[in-house]
Fold:
Amino acid sequence: MKLTPIMEKYVLHWGEMGTRWGVNRSIAQIHALLYLSPQPLTAEEIADTLSIARSNVSTSLKELQGFGLVRMTHLLGDRRDHFESIKDNWEMLTLIVEERKRREIDPTLTLLRECMAEAEADKTTDPEVKARIERILGFMATDGSGAPLPADGTISDAQAEAALRAVLGEELGAFARELVVESGEATGRALTRDHVNLYMMIQKMSVYQKIKLARLGNREARALLVRDRNKLVAVAAVTSPKITEQEIVGIAQSRNVSDEVLRLLAQNRQWTRAYQVKQALAANPKTPQPLALGFVSQLQDADLLGLMKSKDVPSVISMHARRLLTKKGKL
Structure:
């Protein structure tokens, strides 16, 4: 691929900005190149275009895939791995912020909580020191209403209700309680057809309000919002601290969610420990194929046989299941 002067200027500047953000220059330049490229590129093409060592390109691509900013793809008739960048700017920003939070903010929160626990047990620590550590911890670990989140990332119904009430405004905030508690637990007014329809209520919300509801609301709210056309809202629903494994399995089986949601599920090691999730992602035709192929290799023989015979999965998946069974001598 040949860079035009404008493309070269953009790539060089993106690399410079990357160093200011604490990102390796080569990683930032590769991301810029893939973002501008109209078609996926191989590692060799990236190395030749940017004059970067092949080993450096390989390492940088793994880092970008870890962020979720770059994904591997394949072209018909070409056995080589190709790479492309996500093009949605909001999605890109969300992934960068989430990954930097995981790498930078979360370890800091862990350290601050350890300091607080040790300070409580250490009578020689000045009370003012304890107070300052507690203030910075409270500032960094909040649920959106200013209240600190528990160390394990869970949130109580009371905290969720307070946070929702703060962002939904006077009209919708009155239903914060009903939007938080699970079915059968609500007291007082219920979200019935006679009073207010949940779907219609969500249509009145701004994107920010939807994101808050997706994070803090109940199962019914998450079930609607995980299918929202706005990817930020859908991602907020599937990463809610209140979501259950049963919901994750249902989402992994669903063909009404975006491939980005399924990609997020597939890349979460905690969720994919469950065999049901692996099986669902492998059988879902909307799961990105490179990720689905990885789960096919982890399935039991009976499920491999089901995939091989299924007409609802891509041919690549059924053929891979057949190869695995043949290799095991089961066919």
Notes: Residues 143-153, 184-196 have pLDDT under 50 and may be disordered.
